[in-house]
Design brief:
nine-stranded mixed sheet; Serine Threonine Protein Phosphatase 5, Tetratricopeptide repeat; 2 domains; alpha/beta; 9 strands; 16% strand; 440 residues; Rossmann fold
Length: 440
């Protein structure tokens, strides 16, 4: 479910959406809800045209500048930073751009490689509100992208001096500053300083929306967590959802759902048992739904990301889609399933025992559990001891021994365990296990 560039250094969770509107909220006829529906349906060109039309009609319709900034942020998520910048630049020229608009503009310019222009926009935002922690965070990130590391560190440190109140917003700003400082110190191989800031980010944000626990494990400053935090996965994929399918398939040659379907079809008795009442654990934008729809009577999708859920629902392959944790969804299920699918979902779970237990309770005897996970050869001390480890892309990898042991412990017969390439990463194949289990 992820990519090699899906988690940039200094991941921000301070998305500049309208205060009461978040990704995946598509009810209503306001322009931002319409934009979200177009993104969810995969209608990319219509979404881009809608954003341009709203920005062009702003004065006639009385739309606020903040709406244009939110639409531009969506356009950035669609992978079109130059077009996002073009939405906001008229506001700058007319003197109507507030600090929030300038921050979104700077993000677009930086992603487009226009680092000096990004810095100019943020300097203007700083002039308008020099004590804004959000402006300082954006300014530090732009300087880091321009390889001005020392001044970036100074900006992030200043956030810690500015955001001193006890409110939730200030705590979130401090968490962001600490995380970015951790990323910055790690980049220049100051591991102890990086670890100190990652721990501080965790303390300010116990939900760990930035993945500080995983970063600490990478630095060998603490053992790997048993799973990536739900808040971290949600924040990551809400931003990635609009360009997920295009990037995964066209750029990374992603074939996960097709390989899972082929492995399932090859298992004796699988096709003859169809159609199944099925659940897609970590459904993403619905690629697995498309692959397995011919075998399903009903198909329920579950994903942490509201934006991913909206996209999956728009495909029409699902009987229902819910935003939430897959373990909670399994535990609360009122019916049993004949098929559970988890394609590229287990890479965000280290300890798989709770998941196998939940699937065992929810899948009927004779039913199927089809999943993939990245392959560990078990050579590290952590993988040898625990059966899983964090790989170089900040995802979990599992050993064959671990998977076989869990299958046996939870009453599953292992029909197949194949090593396949589900995707490329930095143009190199990523080896993964594709597994087909049947509930006894």
């Amino acid at each position: 479910m992820t990519s090699d560039d899906a988690l940039p250094p200094g991941l921000t969770v301070n998305h500049p959406f309208a205060d009461k509107t978040r990704p995946g909220k598509t009810d209503g006829d306001d322009p931002l809800s319409v934009m979200e529906r177009l993104i969810a349906s995969g209608n990319r060109e219509a979404a881009l045209a809608h954003a341009a039309a709203i920005a062009g009609a702003r004065l006639e319709e009385g739309w606020p500048a903040g709406l244009v900034a939110s639409l531009a942020h969506c356009v950035i998520d669609l992978g079109e930073p130059d077009r996002a910048a073009a939405l906001i630049e008229p506001l700058v020229q007319s003197g109507e751009a507030n600090p929030r608009c300038l921050m979104v503009l700077a993000r677009a310019l930086s992603l487009a490689g226009r680092h000096q222009e990004a810095l100019e926009a943020l300097n203007e935002a700083s002039f308008l509100d020099g004590r804004s922690a959000d402006v300082l965070l954006a300014l530090g990130s732009a300087r880091l992208a321009a390889e001005d590391t020392a001044r970036a560190i100074a900006d992030f440190e200043r956030v810690l001096r500015v955001a001193t109140d006890d409110g939730a917003r200030e705590a979130d700003q401090r968490a962001e500053a600490h995380f970015r400082l951790g990323e910055t110190w790690a980049l220049i191989d100051e591991r102890d300083r990086a670890a100190r800031h990652f721990r501080a980010a965790q303390a300010e944000d116990p939900a760990d929306r930035r993945g500080a626990g995983i970063r600490l494990a990478e630095l060998e400053a603490q053992p790997a967590p048993s799973r990536a935090s739900a808040a971290y996965v949600r924040a990551l994929f809400d931003g990635y959802a609009p360009r997920y399918e295009g990037h995964m398939i066209a750029t990374l040659a992603y074939r996960g759902p097709e390989l899972l379907r082929e492995a399932a079809e090859a298992a004796a008795g699988f096709a003859s048992g169809a159609p199944y009442d099925a659940i897609d654990l970590g459904c993403g934008t619905g690629l697995s739904g498309k692959a397995f729809a011919p075998f399903c009577r009903t198909l329920v999708g579950v994903d942490l990301s509201p934006r991913m859920c909206a996209a999956a629902e728009a495909t029409g392959f699902y009987s229902g889609v819910m935003a939430g944790d897959i373990l909670a969804a399994l535990d609360s299920a009122s019916a049993h399933f004949g098929l559970a699918i988890a394609c590229d979902t287990l890479i965000y779970l280290g300890d798989l025992d709770p998941l196998f237990g939940a699937v065992e309770r929810t899948v009927s005897p004779g039913g199927w559990f089809v999943f993939s996970t990245e392959k560990s050869d078990g050579s590290s001390a952590e993988a040898a001891e625990r059966g899983f480890e964090i790989g170089p892309s900040r995802r979990f990898r599992h050993t064959e021994t671990y998977i076989r042991a869990l299958a046996g412990a939870h009453g599953f017969a292992l029909h197949s365990l194949n090593v396949c390439t589900l995707r490329l990463e930095k143009r190199q194949p990523v080896e993964s296990f594709v597994c087909v289990l049947q509930r006894q």
